[in-house]
Design a protein that fits this description.
With 262 residues, this protein is of the alpha+beta class. The chain is 28% helix and 24% strand. The chain is built from five helices and 15 strands. The chain has helices at residues 8-31, 38-51, 119-136, 145-157, 251-255; strands at residues 55-56, 68-72, 75-77, 92-101, 104-113, 162-163, 169-171, 178-182, 199-202, 205-207, 213-215, 222-224, 230-232, 235-238, 245-246. The strands form four sheets. A five-stranded antiparallel β-sheet has the order 8-7-9-14-15. 47% of the residues are buried. Bound molecules: 2-amino-4-trifluoromethylsulfanyl-butyric acid and cobalt (II) ion. Residues 107, 170, 201, 203, 234 line the site of cobalt (II) ion.
Length: 262
């Protein structure tokens, strides 16, 4: 399958899907509290997505049983929500969600600190987010895909962090996962040339320790091999001639000046 370039109409639908997902993330970040279960978060998230007239794209995707991937501390991604896992003060919780609006997808993730968190956790979250924006500096038509990969990886590794290698970002559109795969670290080849109208889900997953990860027995939850903390930051973006348009940025992030981070 080739990398698709979206039409103006398709881009409008994806903008809407991104905006709804941003609202969901902004609200979930506010409601998450110690004592809640990861299933509570999934239920609230699914309700919000549907109340905005969208569908949760992860639900039943390849058999995934929930709408929001909730991954706590050493869990990297694809944590399965359960009423047994209770969020506590000091945890870092990665929320990954996707929505579909009129057949078009958006995909975004945030890692949230619950109450007071350690300095090292706070720095990991902040630098994982900035690694995404370092990638955005390269996400311009005429550059190549792996310029994004290198910018993300080099920035994260400059702090001694482990950049997860076994999972990648991806193209997105009328499918959750489209071409191309987007690694978060240096590649041998420069990759395809970026063109206006390409839509990508860029998603660095960064560990305090080793980049190596393991799959749990549930066949979904990915954890760090050394059990060190992991953070995730993902947005759906649109390549343009100039700065990329970040379709799933929240209003609060815009107000906080995130558009100046790249
Ligand atoms: N953002 C993730 C991805 O792109 C989550 C999808 S996995 C799912 O792979 F199965 F839960 F949908
Ligand atoms: Co994704």
């Amino acid at each position: 399958m080739k990398i698709t370039v979206k039409s103006a109409e398709e881009i409008e639908l994806m903008r809407h899907a991104g905006k709804i997902l941003a609202m969901v993330h902004q609200e979930l970040a506010k409601v998450i509290k110690p004592g809640m279960s990861t299933l509570d978060i999934d239920r609230l998230g699914e309700e919000m997505i549907r109340s905005y007239g969208c569908e949760p794209s992860f639900k039943n995707y390849c058999g995934y049983p929930a709408s929001i991937c909730v991954s706590v501390n050493e869990e990297v991604v694809h944590g399965i929500p359960t009423d047994k896992r209770i969020i506590k003060e000091g945890d870092i919780v990665s929320l990954d969600a996707g929505v579909i609006y009129k057949k078009y997808h958006s995909d975004a993730a945030r890692t949230i600190g619950v109450g007071e968190i350690s300095k090292e956790a706070e720095l990991l979250i902040e630098r994982t987010r900035q690694s995404f924006f370092e990638g955005m500096k390269m996400a311009v038509a005429g550059r190549h895909l792996h310029d994004i990969s290198r910018a993300i990886g080099d920035y994260a590794e400059s702090f001694g962090y482990g950049v997860v290698r076994d999972l990648c970002g991806h193209g997105i559109g009328s499918h959750l996962h489209e071409e191309p795969e987007i690694p978060n670290f240096r590649q041998w080849k420069r990759g395809p040339r970026l063109c206006p109208g390409m839509t990508l889900a860029v998603e660095p997953m960064i560990n305090i320790g080793t980049p190596d990860v393991l799959w749990m027995d549930d066949e979904w939850t990915v954890i760090t091999e050394d059990r060190s903390l992991s953070a995730h930051y993902e947005n759906t973006i649109l390549i343009t001639e100039g700065k990329p348009e970040i379709l799933s940025l929240t209003e609060e992030e815009k107000a906080a000046g995130y558009l100046d981070l790249f």
